[in-house]
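Workshop exercise sheet. Pairs work together: one partner reads the sequence aloud, the other fills in the structure field after running the prediction. Swap roles for the next sheet.
Pair: D.N. / O.F.
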Amino acid sequence: MTIEVRVPQLPESVADATLVAWHKQPGDTVARDENLVDLETDKVVLEVPAPASGVLKEIKLAGGTTVTSGQLLALIEDGAAGAAVPAGVATTATAAPPTAAAITAPAAKLSPAAKRVAEENKVDLKAVTGSGRDGRVSKSDVVNYLQAKDAPAAPPPAPAAKAPAPPATPGARGARVEQRVPMTRLRARIAERMVQAQATQALLTSFNEVDLKAVSELRARYKEPFERQYGVKLGFMSFFAKACIEALKKYPAVNASVEGSDIVYHEYFDIGIAVSTDRGLIVPVMRDADQLSFAEIEKSIANFAERARAGIITMEELTGGTFTITNGGVFGSLLSTPIVNSPQSAILGMHKIQDRAVVIDGQVAVRPMMYIALTYDHRIIDGREAVQFLVTVKQCLEDPARIVLHV
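Structure field:
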């Protein structure tokens, strides 16, 4: 019996997707629920599993095709033994031959971006050393391998008696190479949203600085028992998330959004946490973050980061959100002005923790300091509210007992 493989129902916010790469070719044996093809949307890479075991009989659409919900992708001969496709059975779209990337790299250790670059350049991933967790191969690993492979070999040492080489021609230079690569759907979507936010919102950024001595001492004191009890490390992000929630409760306009001529005040706290991946920046959302404990927040963030970089995060986890936190400090940023994640009205930027000399009670002391930034939509958030929001975050972090006592 012939079984059809179709594009799964896409979320309401996604109109179409791009067929990235086939993992099986006509004649290959497939197992039920085995991933056949990757579909890239504006936010995530979706896997299309085989609906039944059998042999892939025919591929209907080639890589790079734009597809919509329910569109026919391929045909599977149910229960067939893994023999070659019978003579006379042709594919409607000529599929690319299996590449080394598709054959040699376990899917769990190969990011979608790395897979795409490897297949385009026919790279044998056995030769690529992964720099990620558990040997995961990233896009940069493949690019570095290609650059090293294409680099000219060093010339052998010149004999001692060889005459000196003539002077170089003035103005001579090496090859000037350019590479034109189309944006991924995610990168194009990020560009669109960033431009839209700056074009439709009155964005302004306010700054403050936080002394993280109290939080650092608290983490050092309880780091080991916290990890033993909850199985996750106690990081800074949970403190910042809790501090932001306290500030959002005091200044609800920062947690609001604009819809037409209305202001929508959200009486819940869905906090987005920006995560950097090989494909670009994405923002998974912690629903009802005010009801989560420190351990639950840390576990959620770790889980989001791991699955986002593996390309298996769901669309639902990337939609919604009332406020966002982004941490440029992990990359060494000392100060920045983050862009609001529209239709939200504000975003908090964290930065690098740096020991600096500060004056406390008339005495100079060295403290772990961080600059924080709040970019906000000035249409509904006044400067007074933005500054007081940052002051509240600062107070909660410099005296963590405020988070527990809600004062």
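Discussion prompt: DSSP finds nine helices and 19 strands in the chain. What would you look at next?
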